[in-house]
Amino acid sequence: MVRKAPQPDLVDLHVHSSASDGLYSPHDVVRHAAEVGLAAISLTDHDTVAGVREAMAAGEAFGVEVIPGVEISAEFENGACHILGYYINVEDAALNEVLRDAREGRGVRNAKILKRLNDFGFDLSMDDVACRVAGGTLTRAHFAAVMVERGYVRTWDDAFEKYLGRGKVAFVPRRHVTPEGAIAAIRGAGGLAALAHPRQLNRGAAETDEWIERLAAAGLEAVETASPDHTPNFARRYRAAAGRLGLLEVGGSDWHGRDDAGIHLGLGRGTMLVHYRLVQKMKDRLAARGKA
Fold it and tell me: Which of 31, 51, 155, 199 has the fewest CB atoms nearer than 10 Å to its CB?
């Protein structure tokens, strides 16, 4: 059942398609956004812009504004974060080189993950997992999906909590793009860089603030404050950090289309309200940068 947006100006700035680890094609993601009643979305697939053109064409057909985006997986000393890029030029050579590096790192990592799962007794092949990827990026989520299908785990979350998450038996770190490198690539492609779901930094309050300051100094221009991953207290903390540093506040559901996740496109867990005025603020920030 489609959960309809309660207001006509709502947007979702963090959405995934089958070009990476979402269930629906870019076209169908936009169609679903139209059915929900969203004014705009940003397609932010992991380490790829392969679905952006299809999504933007669907946006024209369905009357949904589609912001070209990406979510770059970045790693730093003893941790990781994701950097969202908005209004990027998907043809930019330097950005696409960074994305290729990130995907190639995933390829090496995926082979090691498969070996660890096999060593742990799971009868899986790379073909079993890769067949779920429609020309996009193969991620741990695809391993989780096939593990659920085979009955090795009950849910996608179980797969991560027991096997695939950081520190678990099948977790493998990968060759990485730094957060600063991701930000530079996004800005070089004409885009605006935002820190996705900062709670996933898995740092205390003071260290999280230090990281946001460090990234702002590197050119970060926004923080994802509205996210299903954030409790009200976390959201207030991130809004305060954004205010101190003059960063924009953005938000999105991190929607992948999975029914078992309890996440709804445009609404998160049902109460997320991100208004179109935030999109206008992003446009104004980029316009001011151009004039400068």
Answer: 155
Distance CA 156, CA 257 (A): 13
CA atoms within 13 A on the CB side of 184: 9
Domain that holds residue 18: 11-92+177-291
**Mean of the pLDDT values across residues 83-108?**
90
Q: Is residue 133 part of a domain?
A: yes
pTM of the model: 0.81
DSSP secondary structure string, 195-253? E--GGGG---HHHHHHHHHHHHHTT--EEEEE-TT--HHHHHHHHHHHHHHT-EEEE--
pLDDT value, residue 135:
57
Q: How far is CA 206 from the centre of its chain?
A: 24
Domain count, the chain: 2
Q: Please check whether residues 187 and 270 belong to one and the same domain.
A: yes
Q: Using the predicted structure, report yes or no on whether residue 278 has a pLDDT greater than 80.
A: yes
Same domain, 285 and 213: yes
**pLDDT(174) > 70:** no
149 is written with which tokens? 């299908």
> Do 35 and 117 sit in the same domain of this protein?
no
Rounded CA gap, 251 and 194, in Å? 10
Residue 257 DSSP SS3: coil
Q: Is the pLDDT of residue 177 over 80?
A: yes
Specify if 4 maps to a domain: no
140 C-beta neighbours (distance < 10 Å), count: 22
Residues 209 and 186 reside in one and the same domain: yes
The CATH number covering residue 192 comes to 3.20.20.140
Mean pLDDT of 198-205: 90
